[in-house]
Write a structure and sequence with these properties.
mainly alpha
């Protein structure tokens, strides 16, 4: 069975109400970290300065890196890899993270 047919079959058998089977915030956090790591492994990420210029929000720590006088290659690194919010979000069910525009904080709000 090809993957498209498999996923269509799974979708047909699942509940249509998205609020009934929400993934835990810890799982969302781990998946987000893994996706960013995969993306970074294929090449540099968009720099934080360019991200802000395109109208996207960044968290307070990313904002500090974006405004710092560092080369663009540093601004293209993912600061979440060393952020304590990521560490807490991946290990606690209700992590005490309250920074605006932090994806890990968003996962733990709902």
């Amino acid at each position: 069975m090809d993957s498209e047919r498999f996923f269509l079959k799974v979708a047909e058998t699942t509940d249509a109400d998205p609020g009934t089977d929400a993934a835990p915030a810890r799982l969302k956090s781990r998946m987000y970290s893994r996706l960013l790591a995969e993306q970074a492994s294929t090449g540099p990420l968009l720099s934080l300065s360019e991200t802000r210029e395109s109208g996207r929000s960044v968290c307070v720590f990313e904002l500090l890196v974006a405004q710092a006088p560092v080369p663009d290659r540093v601004k293209s690194m993912n600061p979440c890899t060393v952020c304590h919010a990521r560490y807490l979000a991946e290990r606690l069910d209700q992590a005490p993270i309250f920074w605006p525009h932090c994806p890990y904080s968003e996962f733990h709000r709902g």
